[in-house]
Amino acid sequence: MATKRTHAFGLMVLVALAVAALAALPAFAAGKAPVTVASVSAPKAPAATPVTTGKAAPASLPPKGDGSLGSLTVEGASQVRIHFERPQLKLDLDPMAAPGLETESTMAIVERKRPNLVLPLLADSAQERAVRTPHPWLTGFAVGTLARLRQDVKGVAGWQIEIIDARGTVVRRLAGEGAPEREIAWDGLGDDGAPAPCGLAYAPVLTARDKAGNTRRFVGASFSLPAYRVEAPTGPCLLFSSAQWRDDQGHGVSPLLVEAATVLNLHTDPDRPLVVTASAPTADEAEAIGREVIDALAPLVGGGDHRLELEARVVPGAPAGGTVQVAPRAST
């Protein structure tokens, strides 16, 4: 009898649960019955934004959790969107102090391997002929002191040195009071500032005067001037004798004329005419020497032969073969 009562009571409980479930089903379908979500698992995160739904107000979440969102009640739409904020990545690392990283300035990086400027220049100019070719190894023309006059006299109150050429003309006078210096230099210029011609013999004559007024003359050894160069107001002035430049002509173009052309190309305006002054005892000889020098210089000087002008001079007592002077023409 007790068993039958127990079965009857259980059946009544099941019927009551079924009726309650059927009663709650329409309300759930209409969106009015609450839905309980328990223990929703999510990845661990330090914080989360509020949960939003399509129509209802968002439910608040615990500020902190242990990996579980706890109980969550959602009303309305069945879609749930959860946004998690990513924490800011902070590295305890200084990139400038990282091992293997070396810092330096921009100039240090650029100059670490300097560009080769010679190879592009050679490649660009290998097939071109330079108009002005320098020859710095040539030293045929002397510059500065041409002769050093040495004397050793004592007890002198005043002195005078005269440089006289082979024609007896006084080219330069040097004088002073007291004893003269042991060595006196001469640059080849005369008293008028004009350069003395090459090819002639020169001799120094020293006139010494003592305190009593007595004078005595000493004649030094003769010498000749080498081919030399002086700086004139118009530019470089080159002087040489015919014998000096003919000595090297057996090897083709005279190195003396090559050096003369180099100096003129580097230190004169290419548009300024060059005057070749040839001096000789006769007019024909001076003309012939001048023309020969112009023909040899024309291929070497920038501007060609139309830039070279001849000035022939007849100078009695000029050295055999004549002398030559090449200089830019003075502007008129």
Question: Can you describe this structure in just a few lines?
Answer:
Helices cover 22% and strands 24% of the residues.
Q: What can you tell me about this protein's structure?
A:
The chain has helices at residues 2-29, 106-110, 118-125, 242-246, 255-267, 283-297, and strands at 35-37, 72-74, 142-143, 147-150, 158-165, 170-177, 183-186, 201-209, 215-219, 223-224, 228-232, 235-241, 274-280, 308-314, 323-328. It is elongated, with a radius of gyration of 56 Å. The chain has 332 residues and is α+β, with helices and mostly antiparallel strands. A hairpin with a 4-residue loop joins strand 5 and strand 6. A six-stranded mixed β-sheet has the order 3-11-12-15-13-14. Strands 5, 6, 8, 9 and 10 form a five-stranded antiparallel β-sheet that branches. The protein has a two-stranded antiparallel ribbon with strand order 1-2. It has six helices and 15 strands. Among the domains are: 142-224, Immunoglobulin-like (Sandwich); 228-328, 60s Ribosomal Protein L30, Chain: A (2-Layer Sandwich).
